[in-house]
Amino acid sequence: MTAPIKTQWQLEDADALYGISKWGAGYFGLNKQGNVCVTPDPTKDHLQIDFAAVIEEIKQENIQFPVVVRFHDVLRNQVAQLNETFQKIIAEANYQGLYRGVYPVKVNQMREVVEEIVEAGAPYHYGLEAGSKAELLTVMAYNTTHDALTILNGYKDEEFMHLALLAQRLGRKVVIVIEKFSELHLIVKVAKEIGIDPIIGVRAKMSVKGRGKWEGSGGDRAKFGLTISEIINAARLLKSQDMGHCLQLLHFHIGSQLTDIRAVKEAINEGALIYAEMHHLGFPLQYVDIGGGLGIDYDGTKSTSDSSRNYTLDEYVADVVYGMQEVCDLEKVPHPTLVSESGRAITAHHSCVITEIVGEIRPDSAEVSVEAVSGEHILVTNMRELAQNMDTMENTQEIYNDASQYKEQASDAFKFRVVDIEELAKVETLYWQIMNRLRIRLQGAEFVPEELQTLDFDLSSQYLCNFSIFQSAADTWAIDQILPVIPLTRHLEKPTVNCSLVDITCDSDGKLDKFTVGREISNVIPMHALNREEDYYLGLFLTGAYQDVMGDMHNLFGRLNEVHIFSYDDDPDDFYIEEIVRGSSVENVLSIMQYNPSSMAKDVKRLIDKEVSAGNIKPREGVKLTDFYENCLSGYTYLKR
Ligand SMILES: *Cc1c(COP(=O)(O)O)cnc(C)c1O
């Protein structure tokens, strides 16, 4: 018996193509209806939320796309996973210290995000980290968990130190991390004035560098941190001021999105040695803070590519715990309390952007009739004959050369007024017909001439997405980060259109043309053919870390509408929308740029009134125009469907 030939497109094919189960981390998958769904708590997989139902509810609530969707359960689950993994491995290793993690708010400072993390982290005494004055003011108010740490990184002035000590008087466990030596004099001065013993940390400049985009966070040229000699001097200075006991924490952070576990191991080893040596010198630190850097497998390759990581959470935590333990045991010093500052790994999965495709741009989108007319230019005839004869020609390169040459010549001839505009349109139409047929002919060919290798890309569609890369996916533009982007429905159908994605900003950089497709990185991604009856929605995933809050005002699009989703067992769709946060209105973004929308509305009204008085606009129409202008001012900045 021969094996049955697999002809039908199946869910597994869609999953393999888009890599959902690879980057989805157990949260995202496909359901039987062919839609993307989210399992907010992978340990309770009967709770599944279908994106089609989410889209439906968003429409019913009259919320315009694009929309940021936050899954609060995912956020909670990530907090629990990190803390429980540390607890589990600390117990397994019989490690004598505790784990007291903190969430660095710079990764996503949205109030709802911070609140959720604090609440979910309370059972684990999970704290917050701040790197600026505004963030410190935030964490002072929000880090209410007893015994949780507040870690303060970043450069500080006197006011910052005052605030920090105020927080300490309010009962917060605040650690002031010294980033450069001169801050030490400041903290000594302020502490003496107020009469409080601060908890002081020092950030070490590490010799090990992280690998990946942020490797500059380590090494001699790192912006933050003290050298070994500075650390020793700092400790001695504190001791001379009777503040030696205040020095309690050693901090290091070798970069974000660490792609290679070897960098983690090396950093732990180096940090553990510094900690042990400080003990030997008579400075018994209590905490070692290993910073952030726990990576996310954005491209699903489990590799050391910049958008991936070659380790799991368990491996990361085990390397931290066992690595620290080994050095401490050898050096005969106590195991310190471990602190980590993972931000990306906590928040990346919890939010995504849903947007709709509002159009398709193709080079060959328009065709004119190419019928022969008497007296036409020879170039049109040549191109038509090439199209007629190409199936009998062996050499694809020759077909390509001839077609390109005729097209170029026709374009020159047009400039000399030898070919008219209708003839030029015929040449163009025939050219793209030939290219399309060449592309089909080359599919699966063993050898593709170099010039023809980009044919797929040249002929690919651009799907126009109703969003701004600069607002919603800044890192794809700024540092070439790959973020997964996939259709949210129709996965029972084979996607047949190769396309790249462009946004609605008028910036030609506003595009996504780097995707993981199967096991390859490609500049086009297969999507489904658009049809008129049905809207087509895409999800841009793993946007919860940095992307959510780094967006800028390019083209004045501003913040997106947001819906916050909670899973709920008793609901037929397993969820409810707990909160809707309206995105920027045109008025909002104009005010930020110092315009005065209400006086603009008055000015436009005055202009309309003038035209009404002059009899150029009917009064009724004038009122409508005024209302229309005002409605647009208070409306959403993105495209309306
Ligand atoms: C940015 C930053 C973090 C967070 O890093 P992730 O890679 O997002 O975990 C932690 N600590 C410090 C000092 C940082 O600057």
TrEMBL record:
<feature type="active site" description="Proton donor">
    <location>
        <position position="506"/>
    </location>
</feature>
<dbReference type="InterPro" id="IPR040634">
    <property type="entry name" value="Arg_decarb_HB"/>
</dbReference>
<dbReference type="Pfam" id="PF02784">
    <property type="entry name" value="Orn_Arg_deC_N"/>
</dbReference>
<keyword id="KW-0745">Spermidine biosynthesis</keyword>
<dbReference type="InterPro" id="IPR002985">
    <property type="entry name" value="Arg_decrbxlase"/>
</dbReference>
<keyword id="KW-0456">Lyase</keyword>
<dbReference type="GO" id="GO:0008792">
    <property type="term" value="F:arginine decarboxylase activity"/>
</dbReference>
<comment type="similarity">
    <text>Belongs to the Orn/Lys/Arg decarboxylase class-II family. SpeA subfamily.</text>
</comment>
<feature type="domain" description="Arginine decarboxylase C-terminal helical">
    <location>
        <begin position="586"/>
        <end position="639"/>
    </location>
</feature>
<dbReference type="GO" id="GO:0006527">
    <property type="term" value="P:L-arginine catabolic process"/>
</dbReference>
<feature type="modified residue" description="N6-(pyridoxal phosphate)lysine">
    <location>
        <position position="106"/>
    </location>
</feature>
<dbReference type="Pfam" id="PF17944">
    <property type="entry name" value="Arg_decarbox_C"/>
</dbReference>
<dbReference type="GO" id="GO:0008295">
    <property type="term" value="P:spermidine biosynthetic process"/>
</dbReference>
<keyword id="KW-0620">Polyamine biosynthesis</keyword>
<dbReference type="InterPro" id="IPR009006">
    <property type="entry name" value="Ala_racemase/Decarboxylase_C"/>
</dbReference>
<comment type="function">
    <text>Catalyzes the biosynthesis of agmatine from arginine.</text>
</comment>
<feature type="domain" description="Arginine decarboxylase helical bundle">
    <location>
        <begin position="376"/>
        <end position="455"/>
    </location>
</feature>
<dbReference type="InterPro" id="IPR022653">
    <property type="entry name" value="De-COase2_pyr-phos_BS"/>
</dbReference>
<keyword id="KW-0479">Metal-binding</keyword>
<dbReference type="InterPro" id="IPR022644">
    <property type="entry name" value="De-COase2_N"/>
</dbReference>
<keyword id="KW-0663">Pyridoxal phosphate</keyword>
<dbReference type="InterPro" id="IPR022657">
    <property type="entry name" value="De-COase2_CS"/>
</dbReference>
<keyword id="KW-0210">Decarboxylase</keyword>
<dbReference type="Pfam" id="PF17810">
    <property type="entry name" value="Arg_decarb_HB"/>
</dbReference>
<dbReference type="InterPro" id="IPR029066">
    <property type="entry name" value="PLP-binding_barrel"/>
</dbReference>
<feature type="domain" description="Orn/DAP/Arg decarboxylase 2 N-terminal">
    <location>
        <begin position="98"/>
        <end position="348"/>
    </location>
</feature>
<keyword id="KW-0460">Magnesium</keyword>
<protein>
    <recommendedName>
        <fullName>Arginine decarboxylase</fullName>
        <ecNumber>4.1.1.19</ecNumber>
    </recommendedName>
</protein>
<dbReference type="InterPro" id="IPR041128">
    <property type="entry name" value="Arg_decarbox_C"/>
</dbReference>
<dbReference type="InterPro" id="IPR000183">
    <property type="entry name" value="Orn/DAP/Arg_de-COase"/>
</dbReference>
<dbReference type="GO" id="GO:0046872">
    <property type="term" value="F:metal ion binding"/>
</dbReference>
